Amino acid sequence: MSTGITLPEGHPPVSSDGGGCLPDGHPPVDGFEFCNATEDDEKDDESTPPSAGPPAAGNSGGESPSAGGPPGAGGPPGAGGAPGAGDGDPVYVTYHDGRRGNSGMGLYYLGGTHRIGLAEYGLARMAEPKTFKPLWMNDEKNIYTSLFDAPRPGGSREGEVTGIIKNKRTTYVVFKDEKNKFRKQAFAMSEEEGMASAQEEAASNKWIHKMEKKHSIDLNGDDIFGSPKSKPNNFSEAEFNNNAFENKLSDKKLLKKLKKGGHVIYLRHTTTETDYADQADPNLDLNDPSTQRNLSAQGIQEANDIKKGIKANDIVIGNVRNSQYQRAIDTAKIAFGKGKAIDDLNFLPYEDYTDEQLDIYHDRIAPMLSKTPKKKNTVLVGHDDPFEGTTNIYPDPQGTAYIIKPHGDSYDIVAKLSPSDWAFGADI
C-alpha cells in the first residue's frame, strides 16, 4: 500500500502496515530496531544506549513512538496521538509557502507527525510552525489512508500546488495535476483541523479568476488577480492588480468600519518632488533629508486632505508607524499628527529585486498586516516596493492607501483609497 508520503533523506523507512525498522548501515535511532538485527547487535542494544537519530526519527521529549505507528507519529489525533505543531515537529516538504498569494497560509508536510496541513506562510524547511492544522480526507484520520495527497514534483503524485483560498466557510487547495490541469480540493476547517468536504474536482479558469478578483488573491501562480487577458502589455502584474482592484465594501460600509476600528491602513507616502529609486543611491543618508526624495507641495496638500477627511468623519486612529525616510515621516506627521519610525518599513537598498529579497519584504510586512489592533486602526506609512513584495499589488500613485482587515494569522485586502477619497463625501 502506498502511503503517499516521500520521507526525507536519512529517515527510517516506514512500511504500509505501520512498522518501522532501520536498514543495515543506518545510524542507530532511539526506539527502533535494525531490520536484520544479529544476536550481537541485540546484546549491544541491551548494554549500550542508542544514540539520537535524525530530526524526523525522534519524538519531542525523547519519548518512544507508539507501537504500530510510523517513526515519530504516535498515531493520529483522537487515538492517543502525537502532540501538535510547536512541540518539535519540523517542516520537511513545502508544497506551497503562501507568500505573495495573499492566502495567509502555506501547505506543508510536517516531520515527526507525517501529517500534511496548513501553517503560517513562508516557513523554511526544518522550521517549526507556530500553528498547524492537519488536512484529512476522511474521519479515520489515519496517516496512511486519510492524508491529502498534495501533488509536488518528485512526490507520490506529480504536480504543483498554486494557491489556497478561504471562501466563506470552505478552504480550497488549488493545484496543477500531472496533466497540467487545474484542480481543487475543498476542506471544512475548524480551529484544529480540516476535513475534506467534497471530492477533488476540476477548477475552471472562470472559477479561479472569479475567486482571485473577489479576494485579491493568486490561485493559479500567474501573479494576476483575475483573467490575464485583460492585462495591458505595458503593465506589470502588480501594476495590473492595483489598477484592477475593486473595493469589497461600499463607501458607507467602509466608513462605518473605519469609525469603529480594527483595521490596518497601509499608506504609501504622498507625492514627492521627483520619483526615483533613492534607496539604491550610494549617497543616501537616512539622517540627511537632502539626500532623499521629499514631499512636494502637492504631496503636502494630499497629506492634509487625508488629515481633514479623518477628522471630518471621526475615523479612529491608533498606532502610527512609518519608515525612516523623511517623506514617510512627514506624511505621517501631517496626516495623523504622529508616527514612530521603524526600519521594517524601509526599502531594501536595491532598485530591482530577487525572489529572496521579495521574501524579506513579505516576512517583514505580512505580520504587520495580519495583526489585529486592540482598538482603533493601525496605520503603516511606507513605500511601494515593500507592499508589492508582500501582496503583489503595486500601490500607485503616491498617496494610495490600502485598507486591510487582519485576522491574526492572515488578512483580507478590502479597499483602496486615494487622498481625496478620505472625505467620503464630506465638505472639507
Considering the protein shown, what is the CATH homologous superfamily of the largest domain? Phosphoglycerate mutase-like
The CA-CA distance between the termini, in Å, is: 71 Å
Q: How helix-rich are the residues, as a percent range? A: 10-25%
Provide the CATH topology of the largest domain: Rossmann fold
Detail the topology: elements first, then pairings.
Layout (H helix, E strand, L loop, with lengths): L38 H9 L43 E6 L9 E5 L4 E5 L12 E5 L23 E8 L2 E7 L5 E8 L4 E3 L4 E2 L2 H11 L21 H8 L6 H10 L3 E5 L28 H16 L4 E6 L3 H11 L3 E2 L13 H16 L6 E6 L1 H8 L9 E6 L4 E7 L11
Parallel strand pairs: 4-8, 10-13, 11-12, 11-13
Antiparallel strand pairs: 1-2, 2-3, 3-4, 5-6, 6-7, 7-8, 7-9, 10-14, 14-15
Helix pairs in contact: 5-6, 7-8
Question: Which key features would you list for this structure?
Answer:
globular; alpha+beta; 21% helix; Rossmann fold; 428 residues; disordered N terminus; nine-stranded mixed β-sheet; 2 domains; 8 helices
Task: Give a description of the structure.
The protein is of the alpha+beta class and 428 residues long. It has two domains: 39-201, no CATH class; 244-423, Rossmann fold (3-Layer(aba) Sandwich). 21% of the residues lie in helices and 19% in strands. It has eight helices and 15 strands. The chain has helices at 39-47, 205-215, 237-244, 251-260, 297-312, 326-336, 355-370, 384-391; strands spanning 91-96, 106-110, 115-119, 132-136, 160-167, 170-176, 182-189, 194-196, 201-202, 264-268, 317-322, 340-341, 377-382, 401-406, 411-417. Strands 1, 2, 3, 4, 5, 6, 7, 8 and 9 form a nine-stranded mixed sheet that branches. Helix 7 packs across helix 8. The longest helix is centred in the last third of the chain and has 16 residues, at 297-312. It is globular. The termini are far apart.
